[in-house]
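tool_call: predict_structure(chain=1)
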Amino acid sequence: MEKIRRDRKAILVFLLPGLLIYTVLLILPIGGSLILGFFKWNGIRGAEMTFVGIENFVAVFQDPSFWHSMKNILWFLVLTLFTQLPIGLLLAVLLSGQFKGYKFFKAAYFIPQVVSTTVVGLIWYFILMPAGVLNEILEFLGLEMLIHNWLVEPSTAMTSIILINTWCGIGFHMATSYAAIQALPSDVIEAAVLDGCTGLRKIRYIIVPMIWQSIVSSIVIIVTAVLKTFDLVYVMTSGGPNGLTDVPSTLLYKQAFKYSNFGRASTIGVILFALSVLCTIFSLRITKREVIEY
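tool_result:
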């Protein structure tokens, strides 16, 4: 019994530092944002904080720009899920064949993941601007009908940002899927191939079920990462033109630092946090399946 008590104390000693960091960096800011959501405050120290009840929440839910940003983030999430993850998985399967030069391609696909998102955003901004590299190439090839103001036109602005974000994240999901595939027993794969299960059938019926936990982790990471998207959108368009490419995070930033409405900004933050939790739980529920042991 005494040994159990000592073990519990040792466990608490190891858990306490992490728990304190978690509390200071996550729990307290969330609690502070929730409280601030019930006040009107301009962010200046010493300025009066006026209690307004649920007025900020009502104002946010009645604001058309908030719902427009939610529509943008939903489109962002759907397109990212159905491009980033499948492409990453397909690349992982191809690279697992370990053909000549596969290490070069593995590193090349992962490079966008390690480059700062701000740097990526600036590079692509200069590529997609009206006098940018892409339009110059299209003009040189005689494809003037394909020239667009990519980051301004409603039909291309948001989609351009999403595709760039997809390009940035493919490397991460390729790496996680590749690691999971490499951990699979080779005899199972070889037996499937001998039975005639090759190509897409091998991916669908053998690889995907056996690395499903890795895929679920990737889905959760994509959901949480997309919902907090800020830097790429802000660097490339600042949410413009006229809020066309705003997402909840850029809207939050504008409310706080452009309009000095920290109460409403905190409200958006709380809503975004709640949405992240709900989407994560929903993702885990719909992807729940029996784990295949090998």
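agent: The chain has one domain: 63-286. Proceeding to next step.
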